[in-house]
Every structure is written in C-alpha cells, then in structure tokens.
C-alpha cells in the first residue's frame, strides 16, 4: 500500500464527497502517479456491508457477498475522469438502479489489462499474472481506492479517488530441501508473442547432496497456484498460535496448529532412514486466464501440456537427478489438480506411470457439475412446459444449497465481462476447453447472462477435453497404455457435484476390456470437496497428506513396472 500524507488523504476524502456534475452517479479519478500505468482494464465498483474487511475481498458465491458492478476501460489517458456506466452488469443485483438505499462501505478497483499479440493472429487484452496466481484482488500493479463509508440514496452522486497500488510479490528463498525453479518456455513464448515462464517448487530427498550418483522418481503434485512448497516444516508448531483460531470450512478450532503439526510430521518422515527417496514438485503455471493452465494444450491458453511435460519436467529432472523416464513419474492432486492429474495421464500416457485424481473437476461433461452439456439447452435452468427451476451450484454434505450455477456465472460476468477475463472457475473451463472465437477470446459454451448452451461448442469440448469420452472413444489404443494407471477418489456429497461425473466415468471403466483398466475408484461417505481416498480419517487431515497417502500404491506400481536396476528398498537408481 502506498504511503500518503495525512493532509493529502484529507484532501482526497473531501474531493470524493463533493457533488458530481457528470451524467453518472459515480465518477473516479486517479492519483497522478498512477495514471501512466493504466491504458486498458476492468473497473469494479463494490458496495459492502462488511466493515471488517475491504470490499474487494468480500465478493463471493454465498449470501454474505458484497455487491459489484463491472465495466471495461479502454484507451485511458492521464487526466481522464472515469464515469461508471449505469448500465454496467452487476452481481448479485444486476442493475445499479435496483440497489437498495442505505449505508455501505464503498471501494473502486481497477484490474489492469495488457495487450498480447498471439501467434494465431489474434490480439487480446488480458490480465497478466504477476507472481500471485492470477488473483485480481491481489495482483501487483492493480490499483484501488481506500474503502469509505457512504449513505447511498436514489439520485446520490459520489466521486472516488484511486491512490493505492498493490506492491510486488516477494519471491520465496531456497533452503536445503526446497528449491525454486523458473524457466522461460519457448513453446508458450511463441504462442503468446512475449516471454512466458513456468516454474515449480521442488522438494529434494534427504541425502541428495551426499549421494551424487543417486537418481530419483518424480512425484508431480498438481493443484491451485502454490506461492511456495506447502505442507513441509522443519521446526515444531509455533507455540504462540492464537487459541481462538477457527476454521469455518471444517468447523474446528486450532486448525493452524494442526496444519503446522502435519507439516512437521511430514518433515520427520522425509528425513527418516527408512522413508522412500523421491522428488516432489508443485508446478506454477498461472496464465492470463487463471491460476492454473489445466496442464493441457488449448487454443486459448496455449500449449501448456507440452510445455510442462516436454520442457519443464525434463529440465527439473536434469537439474535434480530425476530418473527422467515415464515409468518413474507419478501424478496426483485434488479438484483442479485432480483433473490435471488425470488429463496429463490420458493425453501423455507414455510419460507418466500412474495418476491419483482426487475430487477432479468434471471428467464427464454429461455431468458438468449439474449440467448435461450434450442434452440440456440451458445451463442455468431445468426447463419444463410450465416452469423452470434454477440448477444448484454449491451444497453442503446435507444437500443444503448455498449457490446456483446462474449466480456463480453472473459473479464472473460482473468481474470479467463477456470475454472470459474474471480469472474464476467457469471462465477458466471455458478458456481451456473452447475454440477461439472470432474476436480472439474463448467462444462461449453458453450465454453468460441467459445460460443458453451452444451445442457446437459443446461438441468441441467433447471431442477434445471430455476425459471419459476420450478414454472410451480411444480405448483400443489408449487402454493398453492406461492399464493400472487410473485412480479416482471423490466424496459422494462433493460441494460442486463433481461425484456425478465420477459415477459416469466409473461405469465406463468397469466395463473396459482388452485390457480392463485395473485401477481404483472410491467414494467418501457424506464427504465434501475435496475427499482424496482415506475413509479412516476426516478430510481436514487427509487433505494435508497428499505427499504420503498414495505411496503404498505407487510402491505396488513400481514392483510391476520398474526395471531390475531400480532399488525397491529406497526408490533410487544408481548410475555410474
């Protein structure tokens, strides 16, 4: 946050509350020192009732959400005054005229866009990741106003002043066990028309420096953007953690201590003399659309699948003595990471020796959350002759619904507009799976306002990214390469209904022949997102044990597939 003098703050506040002579009820000026950094972007006007946190952090899918209106900014020049377009689309209330009178905390925020001249001939304007994982509210360089209290009434006018800028991210430092890799991808740089980078946090095995002739298997842990390697701690839990620390997600107190204890326990296992020796990597592949690329090649995202599998992973293996062959690499992860683990195994079957996909994003688009993309005409409504019913988007383990698919998409529409620029969940699915539209942005799978599905886009999704369909379509040639490699886990009360796609995929896998898939599909009873395969412990514990919970199954896989020279005792390969 920029430091500004007290007198300057007073002047800014006085200016913000004076009458507005423009045609819009809301106008915005920028501090002169911030004007030169803006050309194009997305303006968000946010109203909140929450006085404990900034409005920019209060927009959500649940009932406690703040109100946001969004509009594009194009060709901004120093000295311009931005007028909020009163027709700007909003969430959860779509129109500014319908906003109730009352007292609000108000804040204006600008997401900056950069121009990309892509190799496919399209020029697009998108928000670039700045090391934070493509999270607009935390992106370095984005600018905003301090929240102010204001009594909003019909016909009210307000002028706001943007004088805050998000500072750069501090890079994590290397340690004995954890190294940080960042490399330029030639494939992605060519696609995007500028230098593009991918990275990884690498956890090295105990004894790495002392055994220069040892080579190790590679475990690839996919998931949302990691700012550092998670769940590994070389010191005991902090004794001064607050006693009232509460996890709303899991409904328990003391979760920080649980997390730190699990991380320390993992470290103790990692250095123990009888623990298997291998390398773990957590990949950073945020991009202009999301915090993850989904680890596949895409018309809109670029050749991330090839970049990770053929550029980044071999680079890491060469630098840190990975074995460097397909039989020595394993994939695992949950949610987005679960989809990525299965997708990488399906699209690069010879390059990996098994995947453990927990609570994966929809792997069968006949159950794209609660939507059948091939038979339904509308993503937001189940329609009959005399009524239509909203499709649920989020539930708890008792089935209580807290968000609808329509509302989740309308939130993204308000934040990012129709060009798929919100950096949120439905938009990244569209960006990865869709063909490029005539305007250079992802062609919509459905109308973001109405929910009407485009069947031609749905067909493109099926042929290129419906993992169950692709396995079934290509099983004659793909099956022999996937035998024993596909393992899927999901709670039967997944919050996002992801278990429905797993059911459909399991039905296909169970009837496979020549060969039988010979893997595992399991469900957690009443387990929510993201259950990952252990029925004996609660999810708030098992989600912290991804790096150890599949080792027995990996060991069995090595016994079946590893060459004779591989040391089954400590999982190393000696090279002279």
TrEMBL record:
Record-linked InterPro entries: AB_hydrolase_fold, Esterase-like, Mycobacterial_A85_antigen
UniProt feature coiled coil, ranges: none
Pfam families: Esterase
Protein name, UniProt field: Esterase
Keyword set, alphabetical order: Signal
Signal peptide: 1-16
This protein's record includes keyword Cell inner membrane: no
Species for this entry: Algoriphagus pacificus
Domain of life: Bacteria
